[in-house]
């Protein structure tokens, strides 16, 4: 009886290592896909909502950032000084985040190397996952700081108006997504999402 119990952990050892490696590969691939989508500007609604929201307001060339800021401030009776301050905050955040985007790209490449290697190094995959998580956290903090700085420039009424716009745009996007899912279901591509 003791021999059977002793042999069982030995068989589980290699299986456990294989499971950990498989999970690590999956995590690296999932993190790489998530970070890739993040780097390409596929974010949730930001202060301005939609594709020109606060999250994407911090990505891209100066002209694009300026247009995103202007779009966010249109209809808010923002002064020229407010517009200038918000643009400066957004441009500074974009400059800080540009280096982070490059680091993220290099990490995605490293993740692909780990994943496609003849033998997947689970420890390297975990280290990379931790690095990517820390990188994402750093970018998230920088974006939040920029949003807080922008909030200091705007009046409570202006921030409330932006909140109303976000709510309206989120409702429009939710309706659009539901229609698209229904159309796919009608074509037999996949079932509609549950409400």
What's this model, at a glance?
This protein is an all-alpha fold and 195 residues long. The chain has helices at residues 2-39, 54-57, 62-73, 80-116, 122-153, 156-187.
What features would you describe in this structure?
It is built from 6 helices and no strands. With 195 residues, it is mainly alpha-helical. It has one domain. The longest helix is centred in the first third of the chain and has 38 residues, at 2-39. The model is unreliable at 1-11 and 17-54 (pLDDT under 50).
Share in β-strands: under 5%
Number of domains: 1
Let me know the number of strands. Answer: 0
Spans where pLDDT lies below 50 across 5 or more residues: 1-11, 17-54
Outline: flat
> Which structural category fits the helices and strands?
mainly alpha
Gyration radius, in Å: 23 Å
Keywords:
6 helices, disordered N terminus, 0% strand, mainly alpha, 195 residues, 79% helix, flat
Topology:
Elements: H1 2-39, H2 54-57, H3 62-73, H4 80-116, H5 122-153, H6 156-187
Helix pairs in contact: 1-4, 1-5, 3-4, 4-5
